[in-house]
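Lay summary. Proteins are chains of building blocks that fold into shapes, and those shapes determine what they do. In this project we predict the shape from the chain. Here is one chain we studied, written as its sequence of building blocks.
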Amino acid sequence: MVSLEQVKLLETKVIKTIEYVRKISEENALLKEKLDSYQQRTDELEAQIKQFKEDQDLIEDGILSALDRLNQFEDTFDNQNLQEKSPDIFVNGPEESTPPPMNDTSDDSKSSNFEAPNNPEDSQTEPQSLNSELDIF
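And here is the predicted shape, written in a compact code that computers can read:
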């Protein structure tokens, strides 16, 4: 038969088990709240990462566009400089393309290696030597 002590022992175990289940249920609820909070924060961070990636793509596109425009500007500038210099050297002939005088004119002992041709026959051979002297690029 079942004794009174066994019933009391059973009742004590049931009370402990109920208390343990209540405690575990509270902890479970607390952990679920933390999980929800962490999940919400994770979603916010993922949204920020997505926005940062989109911003980074826009920044990269802007930089590439600016570099492309800079290259176009440089090409245009270089082409204009070549066109401005080209007529003086090759189209108009060497008579009009004499280099500017040296800035230092105080010392007459220093002379330029380039002299303008006096003879029209010499002017036909001069553009080749002028071309080789001015070809610095």
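What the prediction tells us: Residues 24 and 30 are 10 Å apart (CA to CA).
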